[in-house]
Every structure is written in C-alpha cells, then in structure tokens.
Amino acid sequence: MTDSAKKDLVNALAALVKERRLCAQLLSKPYERGTYEATMARFVEFQTAIEAVERALVSEADYP
C-alpha cells in the first residue's frame, strides 16, 4: 500500500471515529423520541463504516 493510500484510510477512520463519538455523546443525553432512534441508527452506520475501513487497512497492506 502506498503511503498516500494508507494516509487516506487513516484519515477516513479518524473522521468516522470522531462522528461516532458525537453520536455517543447525543445518546448519553435523556431519551427523546425520534432523536434517539435516528442517532442510534447513525451510530450503527458509523460503526459499520469504521469496521470496513479497518478491514481495508488490513487487506490493503498486502498490495503494493
């Protein structure tokens, strides 16, 4: 993997983690119908994306 490709994936991962943390912050507040469910859905989407980027970092390491 080129340094540029690795840097892009690491930056993407950092941005996704930041967004997930913001969702967690919102989820820690008192329950508010509609908002909580939407935020939880976004949290799960971010977690799925984070896991995909982490897998990409591992698989890309095998390529020049």
List the helices and strands and how they pair.
Blueprint lengths: L2 H25 L7 H26 L4
Name the descriptors.
2 helices, mainly alpha, 64 residues, 0% strand
Main sheet overview: none
- Reading the helices and strands in chain order gives HH
* Poorly predicted runs: none
Count up the domains: 1
The share of residues in helices is: over 70%
Overall pLDDT score:
95
Task: Give the distance, in angstroms, between the N- and C-terminal Cα atoms.
Answer: 5 Å
**Helix segment count?**
2
Shape: elongated
What integer value in Å does the Rg equal? 15 Å
User: Per DSSP, what share of the residues sits in E-state strands of 2 or more residues?
Assistant: under 5%
Which structural category fits the helices and strands?
Answer: mainly alpha
- Number of extended strands: 0
